[in-house]
TrEMBL record:
Any one GO BP annotation for this protein: cobalamin biosynthetic process
Keyword terms, alphabetized: Kinase, Transferase
Lineage: Bacteria, Bacillati, Bacillota, Clostridia, Eubacteriales
Protein name: Cobinamide kinase
Example of a GO MF term: adenosylcobinamide kinase activity
Length: 106
């Protein structure tokens, strides 16, 4: 499984479209309603070849407690997915940086 994350969705989409396999975008939204994040990460890792998460941090902390909890869950899910992935790629300004694995695997 390949996990792609980063702040610029358009760059990730372009990069991800070049990769073969079953993919799921915006996995971070699934974390908000998940009762068991490790189970969700296992399920996603087994069902998809490529998982894409938009980075939701960036230093601005929401005032709303639910929004803060959702961001926390999204970050925890991203960590769980990165641990399960053979390759982790961070996108920044449309440039892929491999954080785990090798680009040839991606």
């Amino acid at each position: 499984m390949i996990f792609i994350t980063g702040p610029l969705y358009s760059g990730k989409r372009t990069f991800a479209q070049t990769l073969p396999g079953k993919r799921l975008s915006d996995v971070q939204v699934l974390a908000a309603d998940a009762a068991d994040l490790p189970a969700l990460a296992d399920k996603l890792a087994h069902e998809y070849d490529i998982l894409i998460a938009t980075e939701v941090g960036g230093g601005v902390v929401p005032m709303d407690a639910k929004q803060r909890a959702d961001r926390e869950a999204a970050g925890r899910l991203a960590c769980l997915l990165a641990a399960r992935a053979e390759c982790v790629v961070q996108m920044f300004c449309g440039i892929p940086t491999v954080l785990k694995g090798e680009l040839s695997q991606c």
